[in-house]
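Hey team,

Sharing the Superoxide dismutase run so nobody has to redo it. Sequence (202 residues) first:
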Amino acid sequence: MAFSLPDLPYERDALAPHISEETLNFHHGKHHAAYVNNLNGLIEGTDLENESLESIIKTAAADSGKAGLFNNAAQVWNHTFYWHCMKPSGGGKPHGKVAELIDRDLGGYDQFVKDFKAAGGGQFGSGWAWLVYKDGKLHITKTPNAETPVTDMGATPVLTMDVWEHAYYLDYQNSRPNYMDSFINNLINWDFVNQNLADAGA
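Structure output:
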């Protein structure tokens, strides 16, 4: 079964002015679509053709000869997850379980913001900042390029922020810090984060 480009969970202009329709036209309509098309081409006619996306990622991660397959499969997963991490009129202080765990595990919301921005800003070149649930606790981490916590046994990704330049350049030019501020203050979908925590048994 070939993979298809998932629809965004909102209209392409719904995140403006924080992320513009033009950015989503390119980021979702071109970049994400290209990863899906490349992935389908790489698995067609192979024994991975009918595997789940997560299974393909883990199989490819374990074989250095499958780097191209890993990069495209992981980017399909990462981007699909990222779209759901945002919503119109989102951001700001969290509520529910994630608020409790941020206070317990990460030193409170202000410290979370500082450390999450440090993860995103400290990722040299392209990559991702993540909030993951592992061993009963929240952790902030970062990955380069297409790397993903999906390959980390026992880790459940609950939030990600894309810090590839194509995520923000049309709206913020080279100012990754301004993009990260806007993502945290105006876009995070805390309901989605809480659902991920619930699914992980938190």
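Helices lie at 21-43, 53-61, 67-84, 96-106, 109-121, 169-172, 176-186, 190-199.

Ping me if you want the raw files.
A.
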